[in-house]
Amino acid sequence: MNLDNTTLTLERNDPNINSGLYIILTTDEDDSRPVYIAGNFNDWRTQDKDFMMEKIGNNLYHFKFSHDFDYPELLLYKFTKGDWSEVEIDRNGNRTENRSTTAHTGIVNEHVARWRKNWLPFKQSFLPQVQLISDEFKIPQLNKTRKIWALLPHDYDSSSESYPVLYLQDAQNLFNEKAEFGNWEIDKKLAVMSEYKIGKIIVIAIEHAEEDRIIEYNVGKTVLGKGQGKKYIRFVTDTLKPYVDSNFRTKKEREFTGIGGSSMGGLVSIFSGLRNPEVYGKLMIFSPSLWVIPDLKIKPKKTNAADTKIYLYAGGDESKTMIEHIKKFQNDLLASEFVNDDSKINLSINRQGKHSETYWSDEFPKAIEWLFFQSK
């Protein structure tokens, strides 16, 4: 591959080449996924279509910043295949430092040796601290007890920072290597995100009720019968959150508080957000069991919830109605004005996605990044 020839071609094709900055990228590994530039000019968004590079040859890409681009004093950037799970790494699998330039015109030649694949490899030193809050945390609303975990940033003990909090259902399947159907590997995903200085968040993982899981996550009267979901939501909101806020360094406000889950755990998280918009400003909803309540009515409370951010995910190979249901739910949210700006809803659909932990695992870091660490 001859970069001199590429430069000459660009100069011939663009007589105003010095009116902007060209980035030319060569790679050692090529595949069909597009390449994006993420940096301090776009809040490090890793799948920003405005900064997708054009493929101009085998293992060869380019991107031009326009002549009127609003450059930071020092342009910082990295290359990704769409998110931090697929970011550039060096030939030994190590994190690369931010690239930088002060140039506003001309050509900058760059090279990527390898790309991360499915968040691997990760470094043990960045794994979150996994702390068992209690084997038998009391749930007075249900007259039960439950095992609850806290995943804290790796440097929690040496830091004085306060952190956003995400409450997640089905802890048995979030980071347990022995889980029957696999797990989300949220510990490994958070480790890689921490290495890139994003994703520093407290995750509160609540184990489900085993044989009573469906009853406990079922809200009101549905096709499954009468559930205990309202009491469960009151437990997380009125009992568990105050405990967490009192015992950990949390950012308590709604804009830093999220709740989420998958399947029935996603459904109970939907209701948690709809019923308590003053508490939860972020919802992470994966493959929700919306079929359980086909006539779901969204009645916004008077509390201003317009800035609630909702990340919706569905797989095309889950059921015949999954994508239909989640698109309808998105439209109903907007029509009801529970969220009055479609930029506050991120709908992610994987047409090959199945109803399994593997696919929720892939989606987890993307959701974390968008919900908590992107301003747009």
UniProtKB/TrEMBL annotation:
<protein>
    <submittedName>
        <fullName>Carbohydrate esterase</fullName>
    </submittedName>
</protein>
<dbReference type="InterPro" id="IPR000801">
    <property type="entry name" value="Esterase-like"/>
</dbReference>
<dbReference type="InterPro" id="IPR050583">
    <property type="entry name" value="Mycobacterial_A85_antigen"/>
</dbReference>
<dbReference type="Pfam" id="PF00756">
    <property type="entry name" value="Esterase"/>
</dbReference>
<dbReference type="InterPro" id="IPR029058">
    <property type="entry name" value="AB_hydrolase_fold"/>
</dbReference>
